[in-house]
Amino acid sequence: MVRHGSAPESMAIVEGRVAIEIDTAIYGLDAILRAGYKFTDRCYVFIDRPAKRSDRVVVFLAHKTDAASLEADVGEFCNELLDQQVRQSLAREFGGIRTLIVAQAFSEGNLLDTQRDDGDYQTDPQGTLQRR
Q1: Helix, strand, or coil (residue 22)
Q2: What is the spatial distance between Cα 83 and Cα 15, in angstroms, rounded to a whole number?
Q3: CA 36 to CA 49: how far, in whole Å?
Q4: CA-to-CA distance for 81 and 8, rounded, in angstroms?
Q5: Whole-structure pTM value
Q6: Could you tell me if 100 and 29 are in contact, meaning their C-beta atoms sit under 8 angstroms apart?
Q7: Which of 46, 56, 74, 82 could form a disulfide linkage to 60, CB 3.0–4.6 angstroms apart?
Q8: What is the pLDDT of residues 30-40, one digit of tens each?
């Protein structure tokens, strides 16, 4: 058994499998699930919550073909976990703006300034010619 201190609280590699213990106060369950899903093409992934530690999640990875590359996959999993957590934080912070941009892109008019849709270049409702 090989034990490592790493970004996750603890990790152990045993017989071609790895168990990574993750603190859910740092990484949300959704980020953990998304990171795990990204690895299903090359690893078997199992996610469990220890009975006595509701603030921890254990992710088990077992490589489908090449167990020798499992240590590298652990590092990549940690990076993917961080990436997914940052994506979620950005979505919470800027999700409303993204929704507005997409809505404006697909709308036929101006969602923020409906008066811009009234008139034409001859009537100049915005007074553009006066700003010269």
Answers
A1: strand
A2: 28
A3: 14
A4: 10
A5: 0.69
A6: no
A7: 46
A8: 999 999 999 99
